[in-house]
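To: structure subgroup
Subject: Chain for Friday's discussion

All,

I'm putting the inputs and outputs inline so they're searchable in the archive.
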Amino acid sequence: MRTTLLRRLHSQSPSAIAMRGVHHNRLSRTSSSSRSSSSSLIQHNQNNYNNHEISDLIHEYASKKQTTISLKDMMLMNSVSDTDHYQAREKRVLREQMLMQMATMLQEELPIRLAHRIQDLDSLAVLQEMPSVQQVRSTYLSSFLDLLDQPKPSSPQAEQDFGRLLQNLYQNHSNVLRQMARGVLELRFQQVQQQYPVMPLDHDHGLSMVDEAFLDRFYMSRVGIRVLAGQYLALRHQLLNDPLGKSIPKEYVGMINRKTSPSRVVQRAIEDATLLCHQQFGPGQAPKVQVSGKMQLTFCYIPTHLHYILLELIKNSMRATMEYHKDSEEKPPIRVVIADGTENEDVIIKVSDQGGGIPRSEMSKIWSYLFTTASPKVQQEFFNATKQLNGAIENGSVLAGLGYGLPLSRAYSRYFGGDLDLMSMEGYGTDAFCHLVRLADKAPLPV
């Protein structure tokens, strides 16, 4: 059985951490201070290593097993803050030790996960040649080498330095989702132009040369990497009780809300989807949404993940309803049902619409990252817009209609052991079922 990250974390005392050497003599180089951009990071790292060394390091770390962690493990990471019987000085020392242990665990685990993804990218037959995918690889390689270069977080100061580095890397990776989507579009454009040089881009054009399993694996891993890094960074603010940490509600342990309210998340998703619907169809133009079921239910989850999923489902239902009933004065409402019971292993949220449904011939394509209902104009606008856009794309709105919403939502659902299913009746509507596993606190999470 593989050792969990939590066992690894608790097995390392601060004194043991301090006594540990670097991975390898060639990794003892001290990294430079904060870099302003990913390009400068890449240049710095390439100056430190030659291509042969980089290749050997990737192979070395990609040959190591990625380590699992559960939601329960992530919750226990903040156990120090719940110890009221310690004096203030003892609490401070314990928090510093916990942060050093967490940072050490991440410095060991993240390079392994990044190396696996770099190796996956290198194995792609065609997609790896796209410029945007090359940028993604450079981002992953830069982060991989920076983590190896960083001195061990064996003191409070070294842990602070590691925290600053990881914050920068976390921000640098915020564009990966958009870059990979752009890479798929680059390949889509290239393939269509080669086959149909005088025809416009067909919105139903697939890409048989790209492995869907790779994209599923890549995005699932990306979720895992960002959860691990984001959880540590959020816990740092809480454990250090800095201004940002003080603003985090007490129900939160890092990114995780111990009392996530599905009904509240649903309401926020409805508000955001309604705003998007108004932008697309005009002011005041959006179907009503009726919410029923276990309105008082709370459970342990990451609210931002649940919001992403529900926003995608409700947004899709609103668009389908508006388009299918475009000539009707009154639009049929969308219905959201929150189901739970003491004997249920899942919390289930159903989103139902009367938006005309999906043809049976299309159902096998809806989970593909390569299938899109977006028009050639929308795809071209996205392709052009990504040249100027900066910042995160975690809300997914910029990717609307480009085939990423549903498969990414399913990746978020599955990460904590749940799932996302659709049932459709062509000529009537679609039911989407979001399963959120209550036992996810015990189950190991994907790597």
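Points worth raising on Friday:
The chain has two domains: 5-250, 257-369+404-441.
Confidence is low (pLDDT under 50) at residues 8-42, 196-206, 387-399.

D.
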